[in-house]
Amino acid sequence: MNVKYEKAKEILENYHQEQVLKFYEELTESEKENLLDQILKIDFEQILELYHQAQQQPELQNDKIEPIPYVDKQKLTEEEKEKYEKIGREKIKSGKLAVATMAGGQGTRLGHKGPKGSFYLFPNKSIFEIICDTLKQAQKEYGITLNWYIMTSKENHEETTLFFEKNQYFGYPKEKITFFTQGELPMVSHEGKIILSSKGTIKEAADGNGGIFESMRRAGIIEELQKNGVEWLFIGSVDNVLLKMVDPLLIGLTETQKHLAASKTVAKRNPKEKVGVFCKINGKPNVIEYSELPQEMAELRDQNGELYYGESHVMCNMFHIQMLQQISKTKLPYHIADKKAEYINTEGNLITPTEPNCYKFESFIFDAFKSIEEMTILRVKREEEFAPVKNAEGPDSPETARKLYQDFYHIK
Ligand code: UTP
To answer: How is the chain split among helix, strand and coil, in percent rounded to 5?
Structure first.
């Protein structure tokens, strides 16, 4: 008797997921082994719960929502800036900062084949190299080579590491770069059935950028940071080509405000812009997604004509090591996305759907803010720090990011 098989079969029967083993007899011995291992690693109770959550309408809550206080970089005096920057520079020079890039996303909107960071924004420069340039600049400015942690997904890990290898790590010391892989969760059909990507593989997808805390802990990175005496970790996205990861002003301001977390924001362009905005919910920092912000709140302006809820979350976050330790031990909630995903049907054929056909479960980095009492919010200028590459064309596309990058660096 194959003990593993019997155990997997029993679990699947308990959760009415027997379809997962439908093609088992057609598999090779190693494929069988892989499928059984995959089944035994899944938390079926959690998947069942998430599926039920997807069936329910979000409850209307009586939360108290308020705008969040922020500091506008443009309104700081030269003395204030100098004061904060001095504190930050000291921290950077003495090795108290490390940086992380979240590069586990699928980049479906961009549609580039391969990890988003391997997209060439210019004929001779990929997004990964652009991000790395800022670290090389910091080497010159502060005389320190910062540790760079890069989160990949199981799907893009190999391609990402190969891309770095092929490009000689863009001239950055290889030993200063650490790759770690985020977690995955199975995708579930609208009927609650776990789907297959091949006859011997359960379709899984990265568990969202909020997975960074737990995956860092699992990879021993949080412990390593602490051992190295690192106090601050800047976490940025892979797709902002003006991302300023090494920012003494942000560190100095956060230290002065005695907060353990910080985020840089840009002013929301108009009430309809599709960005999540900072606010306070029941007194704690939070981000409301554009789809969840009622129109009247989105349009509310203060006496200066500024949007009340206008601080866009642009994935420029910084956490103190103490906060990282705390968050990495808590479970962030999962959000549910209705996605189009290829799957193997009951006849064993690969189906490419034209409409969303299954649920994907993701946690978001900003949900971590809920467990923080107060955090620093620094509004920076969009044209200086935010040039996202999200869509293949139109707004937030390579074309718009290229222009912003060229304007900022005065490239003709
Ligand atoms: P997005 O939410 O824009 O998602 O990610 P995406 O996967 O890059 O693009 P689409 O939605 O499929 O078109 C914002 C940042 O979070 C990272 C991304 O790599 C990007 O830096 N991310 C997202 C992860 O690291 N892991 C995830 O599971 C999701």
So the answer is: 40, 25, 40
Residues with a CB atom less than 6 Å from ligand 1: 102-109, 116, 151, 182, 206, 208-209, 237-239, 315, 362, 390
End-to-end CA, the chain:
70
Question: In tens digits, what is the pLDDT along the chain, a chain of 412 residues?
Answer: 799 999 999 999 999 999 999 999 999 999 999 999 999 999 999 999 999 988 876 665 778 999 999 999 999 999 999 999 999 999 999 999 999 999 999 888 999 999 999 999 999 999 999 999 999 999 999 999 999 999 999 999 999 999 999 999 999 999 999 999 999 999 999 999 999 999 999 999 999 999 999 999 999 999 999 999 999 999 999 999 999 999 999 999 999 999 999 999 999 999 999 899 999 999 999 999 888 888 999 999 999 899 999 999 999 999 999 999 999 999 899 988 898 899 999 999 999 999 999 999 999 999 999 999 999 999 999 999 999 999 999 999 999 999 999 999 999 8
Q: Are 193 and 17 in contact (CB under 8 A)?
A: yes
Query: Atom 7 in ligand 1: which residue has the minimum CA distance?
Result: 105
Residue 103 CA to ligand 1 center (angstroms) comes to 7
Give residue limits of the domains in the chain.
42-408
Pocket test for ligand 1, best of 113, 150, 239, 390 (most atoms within 8 A of CB): 239
Residue type, 170: F
Residue nearest to ligand 1 atom 14, measured at CA: 237
CATH architecture for segment(s) 42-408: Alpha-Beta Complex (3.90)
Assessment of whether the complete model's pTM goes beyond 0.90:
yes
* Cβ pair 267, 312 in contact under 8 A: yes
Q: What angle do CA 30, 218, 114 make, to 5 degrees?
A: 60
Q: What's the gap in Å between 334 CA and the centre of ligand 1?
A: 15
